[in-house]
Design goal:
The N and C termini lie far apart (101 Å). Helix content is 12%, strand content 42%. It has 7 helices and 35 strands. The protein has 4 domains: 101 residues, Jelly Rolls (Sandwich), CATH 2.60.120.680; 112 residues, Immunoglobulin-like (Sandwich); 95 residues, Sandwich (Jelly Rolls), CATH 2.60.120.680; 110 residues, Immunoglobulins (Immunoglobulin-like). Helix 2 packs across helix 3. The protein has 559 residues and is mainly β. The strands form 8 sheets. Strands 11, 12, 13, 14, 16, 17 and 18 form a 7-stranded antiparallel sheet that branches. The longest helix is centred in the first third of the chain and has 18 residues.
């Protein structure tokens, strides 16, 4: 059985069908027409479109083949093929078969006959590989095509399922689908700071010719460079995101995913993709070829890729990527602590950086006092370089330490919250009077549901064995204000920050027996079915207040 050369490249089920068709008797007129239709559809499903970018999906270890034939009547003409891997490295090659182009050209048009098929089988043929490549770079082949030659492109992925884009054109006179790169496509790093990197690159010839339709887009990430925009988008999607195609490269009103943040300022579009491996930042800056990337982390290596993009077609070309490491963050300024002096520090929750305080002991026994005013604070204390205490503090916390004269203590503070925290700090010799009053076992305020009425509530709180002053304040709030009031409460602020109308009463009490050191208070004159926020302030001998945890209570609607 003699078969055309290209049958050996067919998938198994099509090869079996072709062999069966070839071995039966000559078809009748009606069956000849059906055969022509099937052949027409078959070849057109494999023929690569001319002048159009084609997306091809590849299954692992399964080769995929496409063909193209030069139009009849053209002797020699240049053609280019550009293949862009969108993920893993692939293998691809171009094979040329001389002698079957006439047959396939007519078969594809559906105007062959059985005599021509017979002649093409008898005519000598030669198959040669004119190009092959393996890798994940964007590769372009330029050649001269002949009307007597059939070209086959074969693609194979050996790592995993993936997809690629292929662009074939035989028209070299009507411009390029892809923007052109300059002779030197490198990106130069011209400035590095603690949180910035400045880049520059040579202009694309396409920008100079079609400025209104071309723009530059920059991709910033901490993993590696990307050789194509297609590969970058695939990597972002595989990190668990849904990224609309070339989202960062057009100003189309796409809806962003929850993991994305869009920033549009000074004619620059920035999209920050929050992925598991860190930020992937896309910035489009028009036709500027110098850009300073802001808001980077100190002492971090970043990879930068620049793409020149055709806004009409979304086709892009990649400059040669580069990388740079930002400078280390300078050592934070160390604030000196003095005996007995109270300082209050606001801690940045976004930057999550440590604030440092230093103290040189003038006594063998000292006591550090920390009062967390808002949020939780991480406290780390070292003595002469060795850690002596480390824990998260919310509320009031004392650390009593022993050492030698002139020991050096370093206190480092950091917010554990995403929002800003604040903390009061004091250090003093152990035998001094404490800054803060003696505290009860719990700073919670309790309310009694059974004692609630339409115009009153009853609350209770613990006291101590020392006689102290307690002041009660109330504030009327709405349902949607509860969370904000509780989260934003400054536990370090005293009654001086409250409106005079919010004050309910002040009282003194104590009990030697801690089991009985509890007091109750019924607040009257309230409105029915209304939410109230209650606060209790404890004043010790030093006059510095300690605020109990706020309590929200709602009066009854009907009584």
């Amino acid at each position: 059985l003699k078969m055309p050369w290209f049958w050996f490249y067919l998938p198994l089920h099509l090869l079996m069908m072709a062999c069966l068709c070839h071995s039966i008797k000559a078809p009748t007129t009606s069956s000849q027409q059906s055969f022509k239709t099937d052949l027409f559809n078959f070849y057109h499903s494999l023929i690569l479109a001319d002048g159009k970018e084609t997306t091809i999906h590849l299954l692992k270890d399964i080769p995929k083949r496409y063909y193209f034939v030069l139009e009849e009547g053209r002797a020699l003409a240049p053609f280019t093929i550009t293949v862009t891997p969108c993920d893993v490295p692939i293998e691809w090659s171009i094979l040329m078969h001389k002698a079957s182009a006439g047959f396939l050209g007519k078969a594809a048009r559906g105007d062959h006959d059985t005599q021509q098929v017979s002649k093409s089988q008898k005519s000598p043929s030669m198959v040669s590989t004119i190009f092959n490549y393996k890798g994940n770079s964007v590769e372009t082949y330029m050649g001269m095509s002949s009307h007597s030659a059939l070209y086959m492109l074969e693609f194979l992925s050996t790592e995993r399922d993936t997809h690629i884009t292929v662009y074939l054109t035989t028209d070299t006179t009507s411009g390029h689908l892809y923007p052109e790169l300059p002779m030197d496509p490198r990106i130069d790093v011209i400035g590095i700071g603690h949180t910035t990197v400045t880049l520059t690159w040579k202009h694309s010839p396409s920008v100079l010719q079609h400025r209104e339709n071309i723009q530059y887009c920059l991709l910033v990430n901490e993993k590696h460079n990307y050789k194509s925009l297609c590969a970058a988008e695939t990597a972002i999607r595989s990190s668990g995101m849904k990224l609309p195609p070339t989202l960062a490269l057009s100003l189309s009103p796409y809806l962003l995913e929850p993991q994305q943040v869009m920033i549009l300022s000074n004619s620059e579009l920035s999209i920050i993709n929050k992925v598991t491996s860190g930020e992937v930042r896309q910035i489009c800056m028009g036709t500027k070829n110098t850009y300073t990337v802001p808001n980077l982390s100190p002492s971090t290596q970043y990879y930068f890729d620049v793409f020149v993009v055709n806004l009409l077609t979304n086709a892009s070309a990649a400059y040669t990527g580069t990388f740079a490491r930002t400078l280390e963050e300078p050592e934070p300024k160390v604030m000196e602590l003095k005996d007995g002096k109270v300082i209050q520090i606001v801690l940045d929750g976004k930057k999550q950086k440590f604030y440092s305080l230093q103290y040189q002991a003038r006594h063998r026994k000292i006591q550090f006092t920390f009062q967390s005013c808002r949020g939780q604070v991480q406290v780390h204390i070292t003595k002469n370089g060795k850690t002596v205490a480390s824990e998260n503090v919310s509320g009031l916390r004392y650390f009593s330490l022993k050492g030698k004269l002139l020991d050096t203590y370093l206190v480092q503070l950091r917010s554990t919250e995403e929002f800003n925290s604040s903390v009061k700090v004091q250090v003093s010799p152990h035998f001094h009077k404490p800054l803060f009053p003696l505290l009860p076992e719990s700073l919670k305020i309790k309310s009694f549901s059974k004692l609630r009425t339409c115009n009153s509530v009853t609350i209770a709180w613990l006291g101590t064995q020392e006689e102290n002053k307690y002041c009660v304040y109330k504030k009327r709030i709405e349902d949607d204000q509860v969370w904000m009031e509780l989260q934003s409460a400054d536990r370090c602020s005293g009654p001086e920050s409250r409106h005079k109308s919010e004050k309910v009463l002040c009282k003194y009490f104590y009990d030697i027996n801690l089991q009985r050191a509890v007091t109750t208070e019924t607040i009257k004159g309230l409105d029915a079915g209304t939410l109230y926020l209650f606060d209790v302030y404890l004043f010790g001998p030093s006059g510095i207040p300690v605020r109990y945890h706020s309590k929200v209570v709602k009066t009854r609607k009907k009584c």
